[in-house]
Specification:
By secondary structure, the protein is an alpha/beta fold. It contains 17 helices and 8 strands. It binds iron/sulfur cluster (2 copies).
């Protein structure tokens, strides 16, 4: 039976935190049917119901018991893409989480992540002084105001050993095309996208203000990001506080450079390759063609199209703080994606997001498919053909 007591105080707080549309929900349940949690078995799947969560929001969280369920949403946005009332479900989930985190009750597995971001400016427990160690022996210029682009490298690609390869591939491609760019380095902080979605409003604003001050002081005009999560946040969240730059994802910039004849791939990479649309690049930012155009410009690549791709792309489950969640084998969205790619006959599954690479690689390993399917970030595929 659903709760009937309304906590007006909490309801007002949630609305203030951004759940402005929660009362538009008429409980039709279409969102629940689109959610990838419906596609996997297990305890979380059995309990997770996004329609019910909207009802909890309307009631000011009365009846809310399990923080694990509220924090199971990956903020992929699939549910809200077909809501007949235009309910901004992801904003509502974030605002409800803010009610929990703001009261000091963040789930135990997320507390070290928030603690590291407070202390180091990134969620990966990486010391600030080591933020540029991903560069290895590469010569990556420091940003100066006469440069065209400031390259913002996602914290994941600064500190996660696998992910640092993505940042280096992107640098190689930008250098090959003769792009004028540089990095700022140790003074940069996390863009805060995931921190915000996890519900820590205060910490998110602290990160955003610090970055905006830094970027503006340094004379940044154009930003190119390695991750779609940073892209989305700089474009959609920072302008309200004076962070107004031209922002693009690296796939947008490279695709344009290829069209202008400033970048080409003399080598070849003879593989059957399927592209997985990251939620924050595709559905959330509307960028579907640029990565596909780039793949199509490499000799030898046979592009395969996955089912449930484009605006209907299946989430890897790494967003909204889920990259730090423990999910038993057999219950991971990424495993469905690996099966999609294997059944299609792909030799490589590529994507354009460091979180997706992480989640898909884990899923590929848990299914024991790493011998037949390679997971590569798109920049790595392109760099192989330079
Ligand atoms: S699809 Fe929209 S209106 Fe229907 S239950 Fe979900 S949020 Fe509510
Ligand atoms: S954002 Fe994605 S994971 Fe979260 S409820 Fe909607 S469809 Fe499910």
């Amino acid at each position: 039976m659903e709760p009937r007591i309304i906590s007006l105080e909490m309801r007002d707080y949630i609305a203030e935190m951004g759940a402005e549309t929660v009362n538009w929900c008429m409980q039709c349940g279409l969102c629940t049917n689109l959610c990838p949690w419906r596609l996997v078995p297990g305890e979380t799947s059995a309990k997770f119901n996004i329609r019910h969560m909207q009802r909890l929001g309307q009631l000011g969280m009365e009846g809310f018991e399990e923080e694990e369920i509220l924090f199971a949403c990956s903020t992929c946005g699939m549910c809200q893409s077909n809501c007949p009332r235009g309910v901004k479900i992801v904003d509502n989930v974030r605002a409800m989480r803010a009610g929990i985190v703001g009261a000091g009750m963040a789930p135990a597995h997320l507390r070290p992540i928030l603690g590291s971001t407070h202390a180091n400016g990134n969620p990966w427990a990486g010391p600030r002084q080591k933020r540029t160690e991903w560069q290895g022996k590469m010569e990556v210029p420091n940003f100066t105001p006469d440069m065209e682009y400031f390259l913002f490298v996602c914290c994941h690609s600064c500190y996660d050993p696998r992910s640092t390869r993505i940042a280096r591939s992107i640098v190689r491609l930008l250098q090959q095309a003769g792009v004028s760019f540089g990095v700022i380095g140790i003074e940069e902080s996390c863009c805060g996208e995931t921190i915000h979605k996890m519900g820590d409003e205060e910490l998110f604003q602290k990160l955003a203000h610090s970055n905006i001050r830094l970027f503006n002081e340094r004379g940044v005009r154009k930003i190119v990001t390695t991750s779609p999560h940073c892209l989305w946040t700089f474009k959609n969240e920072y302008p309200q506080w004076g962070g107004e730059w031209e922002v693009s994802h690296y796939t947008q910039l490279l695709s344009r450079l290829v069209k202008e004849g400033r970048l080409s791939f003399p080598g070849e990479f003879a593989r059957k390759i399927a592209f997985h649309d990251p939620c924050y690049l595709g559905r959330q930012s509307g960028i579907f063609e640029d990565p596909r155009d780039l793949l199509g410009s490499v000799a030898g690549v046979e592009s395969l199209e996955l089912g449930r791709s484009g605006p209907l792309s299946l989430c890897c489950a790494g967003g909204g703080g889920r990259i730090w969640g423990e999910v038993p084998m057999g219950e991971r969205f990424g495993e469905l994606r690996i099966t999609d790619a294997v059944e299609l006959g792909a030799q490589v599954l590529t994507t354009a997001c460091p979180y997706c690479v992480n989640m898909l690689t884990d899923a590929c390993t848990s299914l024991g498919k790493q011998e037949s399917l390679e997971i590569l970030e798109l920049s790595e595929v392109l760099a192989k053909a330079l």
